[in-house]
Prior knowledge:
This protein has helices spanning 2-10, 22-35, 42-56, 60-76, 80-90, 93-109, 115-127, 132-147. It is mainly α. Helix 2 runs antiparallel to helix 5, helix 3 crosses helix 4 and helix 6 runs antiparallel to helix 7.
Amino acid sequence: xxxxxxxxxxxxxxxxxxxxxxxxxxxxxxxxxxxxxxxxxxxxxxxxxxxxxxxxxxxxxxxxxxxxxxxxxxxxxxxxxxxxxxxxxxxxxxxxxxxxxxxxxxxxxxxxxxxxxxxxxxxxxxxxxxxxxxxxxxxxxxxxxxxx
Length: 148
């Protein structure tokens, strides 16, 4: 019994969550979409890392660390609207469209376009102030990216 008590008292404190910004909000949305079908596939994780690296001009190790922060934020945030509104309020329209394309790339990355993923993507799209036609255009661009 004493070893358990001592271990509990000496256990490291959880790492505090980073303050979310639009970059982390987009990453958290990518993670939320990838996890929404309850199959957080390696292809999705790899795509998220590549997108975070490309969108933020960082290397693969920094992108993996950023994804880890995004995963923690995603677990802590109650709803998708919070992330979408943060992006809408802080980012120009062209960057929001690029963000929507990135979200589509995550949805399409594992070859399975699940209804749960589409539902989360649609909620994020609405929160970002984008239309269904914006989403269709972003999907077409993401499908082109997937073929390249």
